[in-house]
Amino acid sequence: MMKQWMVGLAMLLAISTQAFAQQAFVEGVDYQLITPSVKTSDENKVVVSEMFWYGCPHCFRFEPFVMQWSQNLPDGVVFEQVPSTLNPRWADHARTYYSLELMGELDKVHSKIFDGIHVKRQRLDSLDSIATYLAGLGVDEARFRETYKSFPVDAALRKNAKKEQKYGHRGVPAMIVNGKYLTSGSLAGSNQRLIQVINFLVAKELAK
Fold this sequence. Notes:
Order of helices and strands: HEEHEHHHHHEEHH
Strand content: 5-15%
Strand order of the largest sheet: 1-5-4-2-3
CATH class: Alpha Beta
Distance between the termini: 40 Å
Number of helices: 9
Helix content: 55-70%
Oligomer: single chain
Shape: globular
CATH architecture: 3-Layer(aba) Sandwich
Number of strands: 5
Largest sheet: 5 strands, mixed
CATH superfamily: Glutaredoxin
């Protein structure tokens, strides 16, 4: 009986803590409203988009948090990562992301690109250095180079550059919830709290 009571108390405290945290999330402090809202990639779902750059140390540290979070999404919610071109220097990495996606190689090497830059200290800052690194991971180098310069990759970059202008974010990682809300680690205060803010905003959208 005592054990059951303790379990019940622990659950109550957890729920109360979560509810308090959600009530504390304030527009203009923990997240910002995007006005007007931006069309998402799936109008029938709540779409959560992470704007990121492979070379960003904050994105590298946030990656384990957002990957774990994305494994247990509620029904009606989808997650997508979008390589930012907020800074023109980031375009090579954005091209790399979309090239690997088109090739069906992204899942295999995505985390290894982060590791290559931030753990192995590889200078992956040009087509040649990126292509050589990916070849070492088993990616077809000739096909990668061809895809990198392809029209579909150009189109994907142009499309997302227009969206980024509408989001109004100034850095990465930036989280966009359903094209309506913008939040980030700097707004939320920590990676752990950022996940809580995302869940709060997702719940707001699911409740509509």
